[in-house]
Fold this protein.
Amino acid sequence: MPKRYSQALLLCSVIAVLLSGCIFDTTKTSETAATTNPPKETRLNQPAVPPIMKRNGNQVSIEMTAQITNIEISKGETYNAWTFNGTVPGPVLRIKEGDVLTFTLKNKDPNLAHSMDFHAVHAAPSAKFIDVQPNEQGTFTYPANTPGVFMYHCGTKPVLAHIANGMYGMIIVEPKNGYPTDPMVDREYTLVQSEWYEEHDYEQFLNGEPEYVVFNGTDFELMEKPLLAKVGDIVRLYISNAGPNEVSSFHVVGTTMDAVYIDGNPSNVLKGLQTVLLPASGGAVVEFTVTEEGDYPIVTHQFDHASKGAVGILRVTHDGLDHGGQASGH
Amino acid sequence: MPKRYSQALLLCSVIAVLLSGCIFDTTKTSETAATTNPPKETRLNQPAVPPIMKRNGNQVSIEMTAQITNIEISKGETYNAWTFNGTVPGPVLRIKEGDVLTFTLKNKDPNLAHSMDFHAVHAAPSAKFIDVQPNEQGTFTYPANTPGVFMYHCGTKPVLAHIANGMYGMIIVEPKNGYPTDPMVDREYTLVQSEWYEEHDYEQFLNGEPEYVVFNGTDFELMEKPLLAKVGDIVRLYISNAGPNEVSSFHVVGTTMDAVYIDGNPSNVLKGLQTVLLPASGGAVVEFTVTEEGDYPIVTHQFDHASKGAVGILRVTHDGLDHGGQASGH
Amino acid sequence: MPKRYSQALLLCSVIAVLLSGCIFDTTKTSETAATTNPPKETRLNQPAVPPIMKRNGNQVSIEMTAQITNIEISKGETYNAWTFNGTVPGPVLRIKEGDVLTFTLKNKDPNLAHSMDFHAVHAAPSAKFIDVQPNEQGTFTYPANTPGVFMYHCGTKPVLAHIANGMYGMIIVEPKNGYPTDPMVDREYTLVQSEWYEEHDYEQFLNGEPEYVVFNGTDFELMEKPLLAKVGDIVRLYISNAGPNEVSSFHVVGTTMDAVYIDGNPSNVLKGLQTVLLPASGGAVVEFTVTEEGDYPIVTHQFDHASKGAVGILRVTHDGLDHGGQASGH
């Protein structure tokens, strides 16, 4: 890490830890941390709240929170996450090409500034993706003129920490004229891939291996509560890779992709892919046909990452309802 | 790794080790392993056998084996690999768009279940990519309706171990109407990139750096026995990146790519690339012109990986025959 | 690393160290190195010189140097780099599709051979990308018939060391008929992403994490001297990812990309991207509109890398001049 940053970041981290009472677990500081940090059960855990979204013509107002909430990232394993609205990923937002967004961020985190960087909009970051201080709120306006599947995330420094700790989500900007394949699609789902590292450990964010790589924030939900489809369906997935660090080799076992729209733009179509490569922060619309009853795993084909949790199940039945299956242990 | 899996995987690994007699070399278990595992020379080493392929109209039957075979991955360095048919990568399969495959897997591994996941077909994985038990065989039928260059691999859990230990290969599905550039291509070759880690070391597969990154299973064969072409040829490569973990920045030194078909689909054409990025499990058809006599290295331009073996030589001569060259030490 | 290479490379490295007096800092050799290597201030530091470029019709002659020069890669941190012409990256070269290049490399490094591998040309590497010995020069001729944004680099073995130590740059081959978007573009810049590892530490190049990931060789210049644009401008960036090891998830905060030409080829156009993924050695032309006054960070969205320095600022003002801003501390 560049040294001029590392000191500032270290300072920020230390302040953050002291203020928020998070356990900052490194070999160097664990002894001190163990004695000065409050026990896990007393950490801040603000309940999830839905975002508020209102439309008036093409004027869309959205209100969201920055808050600290415990997230179960694996069975019995909780991460004291920095979140939008108390979930990781944050809520999926869906607007239309040509909308003008008036966005309000209420920062309910008592200790740290947070902010919002929408990849979907045109805005001067130094004016409109700026920090909102603890217990304050900020409102910003910008147009969303590019259709697609975009990442949003907290852009407060150090950005790596704010993303790694959970502050990201997906915003879909529906194309004005839709996708050429809209009439064929039978059902659709959203998936966000991301990594979890040792809790609040900035050195691990920077140089370590992820402990978990997951879809939609956990490594188990999409195994236990599979996505569903009917035999013969064309399924559309809106996918986004939040990172913060890794690329994704997104793959659905048992089928090939009839169409892939890179970053969700109708102009960027690829056909017959087995696997689509997403950059960190990249997105896509992925469509495929399921021809037989059974369970179809969804993975990143970087199998170190799939082995760390990035596996979901798409369950295909004759009627599109869940009748149990291998994957869920039934 | 998610903890609920790690225990199951550890158990699987331990059982696999005990049963197969593989040296499972970790710092934690090496002491025990050193005393309980048989010496290297007594390990199972089943001779390679060709696959059996028969065609009747568009009905294609393929019979392959899962087996344990020593693979020389570098000069004097042998890996006791899990293989299809005794080679790594397994045999290149070549069928046509619209074929219906009847595939039989004979599992000659006395200790572990194996399976076959063809990226080229439409099939319910929970019904048709299922485990075949030791000394048994399974037969499955599915259509191959998407043209391209696809990966196949063992899909038995833990998938990461089955791929990292050698169970992968390439299946080409020729497009019904060919590629627009078919008339120009003078010769073609197949290349599969993959990684080798510390032998049978699951922790290294998950979190380590590869020891070797190679084309077609070894780090020397394509240096000593170069691919050949004639001055002026347009050369086509069918390429696949088996991973299991890394992406590939595929590059041919001394030329640019006239055409690249992403995942080998005639619809997905890019022109004039210097380097094509393959996801883990991604493929491509790559075509380029060689204009002068000499040796053209083929690499992944991720040079840590090229330095670990992923270098091949394309030798270009006036008549397309090998007259020796720098690269092989002549 | 394949063993047959590792010994040769180790030998090369040792010779290089002894000859050049570089500090070759490994745990194994540091004791010896500390006593046998000259102190930092006495290391070779050849002043930067401009390349010499002459055109006669479509015949272009270029003369460049290989030389050893101290590069300030971060504030107060100097790397004794292997360079082209004394800068890292080397000078940006700009020629036209259809040019024939006559290239001369003057090797001013008294100790090591160097060479030039242009990704933009057709040439037999074993004849025209060959080593030029210390204090000698070599001249080579080849055509540049593919338009785009290409990497050039030293191709002398071990290539990884020559790239990691600084020998790379960008060559733009302007398309004969331009880009369809040429009339709309208001201003353009060039950016080369690359990694710095522990100085001259081959083991770190092979298996380590980068210490810095930077644009145009340093982690501070594009923060302190931002790129400039005017409100409403369409900005074009020519970008190249030199690696040596990592891919880039290139992103401009606050906008989406109107057009992206993969590897700079007018045929390979993508629309509306939030982020473009570059392989190691890949390039692109990226165009976007800036609609408001303010600072727009440019990053790789692999945020471990951005946190290590790969952040630049594009400053947008009403008149396109720099009036100071947040990012530079004003």
